[in-house]
Amino acid sequence: MRKILQLCIIALSGIAFAQTINAQKEFSVKSPNKKLEISVVINKENVEYCVRHEKDLLIDKSPISMTFTNMEPFGINPKLAKSNTRSYSGVIHPPLYRKNEIVDNYNEITLQFKGNYNLIFRAYDDGVAYRFVSTAKKAFMVESEQVTFNFPTDNKIYAPYAKGRKNDGVTDPFYSAFQSTYVHIPLSEWKKGEIAFAPVLVECANNKKVCITEADLLNYPGMYLHNKEGNTSLEGIFAAYPKVIKQEVRGLKGVVKERESYIAKHEGATNFPWRVIAVSENDFELVNNDMIYKLATPAQFTDYSWIKPGKVAWDWWNDWNIYNVDFHAGINTETYKYYIDFASEYGLEYVILDEGWSVAEKADLLLIVPEIDLEEIIRYAKSKNVDIILWAGYYAFAKNMDEVCRHYAAMGVKGFKLDFMDRDDQLMVDFHHRAAQATAKYKLLLDFHGTYKPTGLQRTYPNVINFEGVFGLEELKWAKKETDMVTYDVTMPFIRMVAGPLDYTQGAMDNRTKENFAAIYKEPMSQGTRCRQLAAYIIFDSPIIMMCDAPTNYMKEEECTRFIADIPTIWDKTIPLNGKVSEYVTIARQKSNIWYVGSMTDWNARTENLDLSFLGDGNFKAEIFKDGINADRVGRDYKREVTDIPASRKLSVPMAPGGGFVMKIYKQ
Question: Does the pTM of the predicted model rise above 0.90?
Fold first, then answer.
């Protein structure tokens, strides 16, 4: 009897021990340089993670899970089946990027759970990421996803609240142009009821920064963030799946009138997006962070020879305002031939025909207004070694996507600029994916305007060459008096640009100080100095970049225009030299054997002390455009000079309030 009792006690002890083990399992993954660590705890009830950088706790225990309408949840009452780890070290050679080589080193753990799902955690030197993976074979619908970022203290955050738009008299927060400036507030002061679109930036211990966004978003709604409890946490929130969509706004867009109770649906096994936490010790490291590109699905084709980056003579921002001509300027063949002549003279690769070339209200891109002879425009452009890109509202493009691509590719059009998506629910994300496929099929470029931040589609389909999702120069056509584009310009590179390239549309030749700026729709101007506009071509990542001002204005500014026209749009190397969020940013970029350096400041004048030791041995000269002595009074004032780079490789350049400088460095 005693022996049986002892066996029972041992058995019960074993069960208790097994329950303890099952109640909590702990795993961790460290970055290759051992500084970053993501720790995972599997409790009986849930899965939690936390993130440390050396001794600093960046993100405290944060639960994550997914729930479904017709399937058991992921991460709730989890039952771990097994785990495995791996390390990877490789190199990516992107065809169109800010560098020609990306070092791709990481450590990873995959946790396999009963219930047909995995959870992958990955650690790089510059950040960490995780994603759920469904291995289920049946169709399912995602009811919700729990994404949590619990911060240990009331840190300050830079967040772009989604402005939302009126929809049948009610503001729909998910109906967004993704063009907001940043609030800079403690987490606890998050405005009640507001949501923000990613990326956001959080200030952490010892001046470290955490940039939160997502990657490999291909068939799932985009992630917004909010702080509904007024505490020190951020939570993910997602637009529900559209149920009823109505064509509106001159036939250009589809507006969601009713939504389903779920956020996504899938036919079977799928990879969900990566939740990305980029980490920097120094602010300027963020402008060169490659996590989104590294986490994206690799390219779906291998011939990139037809994808041509470059600069675009653009009509819409300057409102077709050319002058000193003998024809009436506007949306007509004569005007576009003038733009083509300008592009040809300065070696620009493209001219865009923006809104107005196709018949309004019809949502039929095969109907062209009578003022435009598109075949003649394309023929004339080709004779001048210039290519044509067409603007289109997404709704019209989506109606007969394959036919439109086939038709215009056959005519000689080289790409589309798609606009007015203004959503990132699952249907809209899927549209971006399908548009990338269709345009790639016909060897067409794609510039997504009026859209959400990039999440890596530019790697998966390298013909997707640009995205807006930025408070760009167009905003100054209608800006309110309190609009501060100058501060935004030195904030956004550390946040939005972490996600990928941006269609900011720079290049204004009418440049004003804070006191002299006014929003004029038909003859717009920029805030800050002329040299700041030049610096935007180096600071901002854009494989295809607009020259937004009127050709007539550029031709009056020959010196600056020639300099802009010669700046590359993709690079061999990028080196962030200095910078602080919302104050200033300085970047060096190399193409072949020429270096370009650009810098911008906020509304404070400052002198940037450059260390150019990256140049290596030899004698170098620099062509420098810097703010003129009166640039604080007249934003157009600048000075060009050519100087030797000293052997010490030290050089100081002053910047006016709202100013900047650029330099082109070449070996003698």
Answer: yes
